[in-house]
């Protein structure tokens, strides 16, 4: 099975404070630690497990700046076979549809049986996978949390729906799936694993080599534009307690008693 | 704005909670426009849901077909692409169905897509200004959407205050029009829905919950949480990453893909406060948050906040609770 997994490099929000920069036009990117989008990691693990079971090849692709090949190397260390790095300044500022069009061009260069994305990335959108499927006119399912081969050319999938219920379906290959966390336990990648793939060649693709029409991608074509970032001033917020740990604990005990929190 | 639609979910004859919120958002976009609710399905459940929708919306478009008994996004998308006129605005709740349906639908309609909006600020010169959240709610962004060729807009559940229903409306049967091209080949076939497992504890009934998130860092540290819960006489619940890591079973998960809880006190320990987690907290009376990051979004929802490292602080709190009893 030829599998393509779309992966995105995102700021690691567990490690970073997200601060505004340039009066809100951007976030402070100087000291950010980047990692692979959490959902994409599960998608790559799902692809590797499927390949190990039925044979084939896992390709990981990212659209990002010069440094974005780091996430591809991490996925190669996990066990992906090959990386593709779309890197071109003219593609910057693309909206979700622009990104989907770029990935469509990547897909059309070769034949894939299965294309995986994450359910969502750092922008909380969850849009690129569904758009890519529509552009390719392939069947799609979002929030997939179970995946197995049913018959030749058919997958049996589970989708997460409200309240943790699971919707089971069969879907024809080729198809596009967006993967939800919890579908598997992504394997650990150590420094040694990453060192091993440090010198692997990762081909770079640009708008020209993908045959992209510049009028359909990049900032100029974007119909969803970000005007600024800001820190929401929603609601009164919490009453913040202060003091040394035992003072904090004593205050909390009083509050817990008053609110019925101790039984 | 002539063409303003809202796709409404329903289940077992009951309209989804978001229906009135979508109506409120429609009013916000175009106070004068008569928004049309679209419902798809089959049988008495659909009829009942359409009647409830007609109590809110001036017009309801019904798509009824036995093939829509389980309205899967792959089946719905071509029907809606046929039925909704070019240039329309279509609203949906940013839920599991919208995530499945909406991005592809926007492509098929040639419309722009605005995912997971938390506020709509108005239309000017063919552009809609709105607010979204990024980076797990750590920052918000003003965005601008080109709606000149129409738009699909998904709205964060709970972000729009439901409005009072207006004049009762009428239900129009649009099935023939929507299904005119015949059913497209079913490349994705519904098999069954497996209900979420019931757990040994029912966190939805708990009066006090100590809830643990990724801030606990290590499975072994869960002991600190259970110790505190025991001292309080509380149950333990958690955020999704704890379940994904298989440290706690799924029935303990709070959130949109877990349980909705309604305790008197919800003590969130090392939980950032993502929209999906907060979605399960709508009924919680008093939320107390302990997080090492002073800007964690959970502090916006909480009534009381403590900035502390839970690994160090939880044992101190447990001792104080034991001593104070
Ligand atoms: C469709 C969909 C449905 C989802 N459904 C749910 C759901 O039902 N429930 C749910 O919870 N999530 C759900 N999620 C996931 C959600 O988006 C978040 O990823 C998740 O809620 C984050 O969990 P968290 O707060 O524990 O982890 P994080 O966001 O990683 O936050 C960890 C927090 O711990 C703090 N911290 C770290 N170390 C310490 C320490 N030593 N002491 C104190 N604080 C510390 C950090 O400052 C941070 O705020 C869903 C996502 C999707 C896409
Ligand atoms: N720049 C990118 N490069 C490759 N894949 C991406 C990119 N942006 C988004 N994706 C894919 O689309 C998924 C959903 O992202 P989003 O629609 O931005 O929430 C991600 O999990 C990735 O699989």
Compact description:
The complex is a heterodimer of chains A (263) and B (325). With 263 residues, chain A is α/β, with parallel strands linked by helices.
Defining key terms:
heterodimer, A: 263 residues, alpha/beta, Rossmann fold, nine-stranded mixed beta sheet, 7 helices, B: 325 residues, 28% helix, elongated, binds flavin-adenine dinucleotide, binds adenosine monophosphate
Q: Supply the helix-strand structural class of chain B.
A: alpha/beta
Q: Provide the spatial order of strands within the biggest beta sheet of chain A.
A: 11-10-9-12-8-1-6-7-13
**How many E-type strands of chain A?**
15
Just name the CATH architecture of chain A. 3-Layer(aba) Sandwich
Distance between the termini of chain A: 57 Å
Task: Characterize the overall form of chain B.
Answer: elongated
Unique ligands: flavin-adenine dinucleotide, adenosine monophosphate
What is the gyration radius of chain A calculated from CA atoms?
Answer: 21 Å
Helix-strand layout with pairing:
The complex is a heterodimer of chains A (263) and B (325).
Chain A: E1 2-6, E2 9-11, E3 20-21, E4 26-27, E5 34-36, H1 38-54, E6 57-63, H2 69-78, E7 82-86, H3 96-109, E8 114-118, H4 128-136, E9 140-151, E10 154-160, E11 166-172, E12 175-179, H5 191-196, E13 204-205, H6 218-221, E14 224-230, E15 239-240, H7 245-259
Parallel strand pairs in A: 1-6, 1-8, 6-7, 7-13, 8-12, 9-12
Antiparallel strand pairs in A: 2-5, 3-4, 9-10, 10-11
Chain B: E1 4-7, E2 10-11, E3 14-15, H1 18-29, E4 36-41, H2 43-54, E5 59-64, H3 73-83, E6 89-93, H4 96-109, E7 112-117, E8 119-124, E9 127-134, E10 139-146, E11 151-155, E12 170-173, H5 175-178, E13 188-194, E14 208-212, H6 222-232, E15 235-238, H7 240-244, E16 265-269, H8 275-278, E17 286-291, H9 298-301, E18 304-307, H10 310-324
Helix pairs in contact in B: 3-4, 6-10
Bound molecules: flavin-adenine dinucleotide (FAD) and adenosine monophosphate.
Flavin-adenine dinucleotide sits between chains B (136, 213-215, 239-241, 253-258, 270-272, 274, 276-277, 280, 291-293, 296, 309-311) and A (14, 119-120, 143).
